[in-house]
What we know:
The structure holds two protein chains of two kinds.
Chain A: H1 7-23, H2 34-50, H3 69-81, H4 91-104, H5 107-119, E1 124-127, E2 143-147, E3 150-161, E4 168-174, E5 185-191, E6 197-202, E7 211-222, E8 226-227, H6 233-248, H7 250-269, H8 286-316, H9 323-345, E9 357-361, E10 364-368, H10 374-380, H11 391-402
Helix pairs in contact in A: 1-3, 3-7, 4-5, 4-6, 7-8, 7-9, 8-9, 9-10, 9-11
Chain B: H1 7-23, H2 26-34, H3 41-49, H4 68-81, H5 87-98, H6 103-113, E1 119-122, E2 130-133, E3 136-145, E4 152-157, E5 160-165, E6 171-176, E7 185-194, E8 196-199, H7 202-237, E9 239-240, E10 243-244, H8 249-278, H9 283-308, H10 310-313, H11 320-332, H12 337-350
Parallel strand pairs in B: 1-4
Antiparallel strand pairs in B: 2-3, 3-7, 4-5, 5-8, 6-7, 9-10
Amino acid sequence: xxxxxxxxxxxxxxxxxxxxxxxxxxxxxxxxxxxxxxxxxxxxxxxxxxxxxxxxxxxxxxxxxxxxxxxxxxxxxxxxxxxxxxxxxxxxxxxxxxxxxxxxxxxxxxxxxxxxxxxxxxxxxxxxxxxxxxxxxxxxxxxxxxxxxxxxxxxxxxxxxxxxxxxxxxxxxxxxxxxxxxxxxxxxxxxxxxxxxxxxxxxxxxxxxxxxxxxxxxxxxxxxxxxxxxxxxxxxxxxxxxxxxxxxxxxxxxxxxxxxxxxxxxxxxxxxxxxxxxxxxxxxxxxxxxxxxxxxxxxxxxxxxxxxxxxxxxxxxxxxxxxxxxxxxxxxxxxxxxxxxxxxxxxxxxxxxxxxxxxxxxxxxxxxxxxxxxxxxxxxxxxxxxxxxxxxxxxxxxxxxxxxxxx
Amino acid sequence: xxxxxxxxxxxxxxxxxxxxxxxxxxxxxxxxxxxxxxxxxxxxxxxxxxxxxxxxxxxxxxxxxxxxxxxxxxxxxxxxxxxxxxxxxxxxxxxxxxxxxxxxxxxxxxxxxxxxxxxxxxxxxxxxxxxxxxxxxxxxxxxxxxxxxxxxxxxxxxxxxxxxxxxxxxxxxxxxxxxxxxxxxxxxxxxxxxxxxxxxxxxxxxxxxxxxxxxxxxxxxxxxxxxxxxxxxxxxxxxxxxxxxxxxxxxxxxxxxxxxxxxxxxxxxxxxxxxxxxxxxxxxxxxxxxxxxxxxxxxxxxxxxxxxxxxxxxxxxxxxxxxxxxxxxxxxxxxxxxxxxxxxxxxxxxx
Lengths: 407, 351
């Protein structure tokens, strides 16, 4: 048992740290205008690619970094430490679409798409969930029928982040309505500029519009875009999701520890309690201080859980269902952390604008970015127990696959 | 970086588990709770023959030559079985005496390793009314676990460590009824009891305190894991409405939460044990983190385990209550959750 990294891994850490510090975008990302955000993320991705850091988990064969699990962990730790910008609009391409093509794609699909994803030339989005198929993903209804050399897709998808700015979509469609529900699904690459696609942004409870509904009216997708075999899409999709449960969430798990550090700093300078007793700061309050200590202990435990999970995967060679234990712990902890931020800030949260604005501060007026506010991050945290498998589904996975409980 | 068990550790785990299944099945643990302290002596001598008390003591000192990471495996198994007796004080005394010279202390060490000398840990929780002067110790201490039947005491205070042989007249051990049936308690009165000062500096005392805390956490993780297993086993076989209750999400999801807490506690504990072994700069913080996570997990899992067993869970016959009681006594050992949280708060406020 070891908690230290090898000299080679420490050397890797130093190189990663130096490079990220020297090259991370210094300007804040233009978050509220998606086309600009797309260009910003793609440019950052290109910079990582040119320096050989892109696709940290992708095999070298496909021009990825081919980093070991430990190196991936170190990379994400250093990324979080430097507070470097995460190119969120590229998440699906780098962590879903790309890895799925690597696992199940044809040679032509790999040769065409993988370099574009890695070099920061294309944005991908996901077309899995539907209004009637959320937790029960296999119940999806979007239809596709074969017509010559094309699949003709009709139906609707929902919760598609960045559909407005994506070139391609990983799309699940029902190609055999008579087969058992897991057997009649096909995984296909859908070009988002195809005729018959309509995109409608959805406003979230946090006020932003990153995700969308997508409607398909007899959209013709080339048959060559089918990944794996027709009607074998469920297996193809599961290869993506098991990857997601493996390392794709390392980054946000590592970042949560930084958020708690920020929160302690916030409590140090935030007046707390009744107006009459305003001399006191939140950190002077024993209840707030102990809740911060609890959060600090829990993010430390999250890190140890992550290390244990990486150790296990390094030994067995594949991510296991145990990832659901971490996912569940993380998602609930993240919500506790941001709820604590609200309690620390007290009445200061009441005035909040869903647009960026100029606020008066001790150092004079400054530009306040909506997405950096604690209120936005708190509201956004409600998604963490819903997205990528709700906490109830995570509990089912734990019960069924880890504990072996009857279904 | 590797937080999984090594092949050696897995072998130790198997050896200890087989030993405890044979020597200390739950029926025997329950019987021992009603018997005098001498009833456990044959089990301890058998454990001594297998080297259990000397896992972290060097070969030259008569031990097995492993480290606290292997003792972690032992304590997890002890916690799983709710094994009675002052294992923690005895193993820590073996460590502390291995650093000493002198024939008398060497003889005590040999008796510990052989499973003949039981040493109760007298830790700082409760009123610090023990006074050490001129090689003698006087005073009282309440709620000392496993002292009944102990041949010696290991006193662990902020300022140092003392080893006290239990001499009649000098050390009075008065057994008290224990809330936790698998863990005896006693009231100690010491009158000019001769002692060996094993350390008289805060650093050494704190280091031994960290070892004590993380091994107690390992013991807790064994109990936490057992609550998960008990709930899963029961909810597979107990049928209501024509189905095993584990198929109902209300029960399944509670079991999933128990498994999640067990994994969090185990991860924090494992990381802390290795931090303590390596003398890491943040070992005290990691020990506090482990204590907080293990106490939360043990208390909640033990309570959920009672709930999952329904009416049976409320009976004395069902083992579920034994883990509730052990969770409570663990929470109060070596610094409560609140004390651990306040240790982290002090770090925030000092920064």
